[in-house]
Amino acid sequence: MTSSPPPIVQPAYLFRYSAFCPRRRTIWGKNGVRLEPRFRLPCFTEIEGQPLFADVRAAWNSTGLSFNLTVGNRADPLRRNTTHEPEDALYVWISTRDTVATHRPNQFCHHFVFYRFGTQLTSTKPVALWTKLSRATAHPRPVTADALRVRTEPRANRYRLEAHIAAAALTGFDPQDHPALGFSYTVADCEHGWQAFSKRLGQRIGHDPSLWETLELVDD
């Protein structure tokens, strides 16, 4: 019995997906934030049979957006990348405007990276970064260091990463008039590899917002 050839087009490219992001009264404090199961985001690459290893949750309110990442089934939750494996991190792409017909990033498009161990092999603390998107026609206003928050902790055979993006770091953030955000995420893990929100976009995700999905900010 011969196996079927892989599809020419990934199934995820045939659809545009939308996910709900509920409002929460408090989304960040001195101890970060723990989001309940109702804040869990779907992972649409599951329709392609991709294994899921990460639980990603999101919440919003007028102060910004927060995310919880939990990666389980780790042989060593304290392990970090020392070779060519991906660094443990959460990559987030957000547009505060509709991105259906936008093939090049503009001033409303943002890219954030939350590293579990920072960016140096000697680092032991998490780091949050904003980076410019390639091929952008315009860039959002610069993000100050205090507009991003991140914390992490190991728990048995898993680890948790908590991240916060303040509204001040999101040019055009206006949940009342623009509750639908362009959105995508990718989780990198040095044991499990990669998990994407929808399309396995490779390098294209950084300069084609039309490939992002929709995150609907709903008032729960």
Beta-strand residue fraction: 35-45%
Our measurement of the CA-to-CA distance between the termini, rounded to an integer number of angstroms, reads 50 Å
- Give the count of helical stretches: 0
Average pLDDT, all residues: 87
Shape: globular
Q: What letter string, H or E per element, gives the SSE order?
A: EEEEEEEEEEE
Q: Given the helix and strand composition, which structural class is it?
A: mainly beta
Radius of gyration: 17 Å
In words, what does this structure look like?
This protein is mainly beta. The protein has one domain: Sandwich (Immunoglobulin-like), CATH 2.60.40. Helices cover 0% and strands 35% of the residues. The chain is built from no helices and 11 strands. The protein has strands spanning 18-22, 54-61, 64-71, 89-95, 109-115, 127-131, 148-155, 158-166, 180-189, 193-196, 213-218. Strands 1, 4, 5, 6, 9, 10 and 11 form a 7-stranded mixed sheet that branches. Strands 2-3-8-7 form a 4-stranded antiparallel sheet, with no helix packed on it. It is globular.
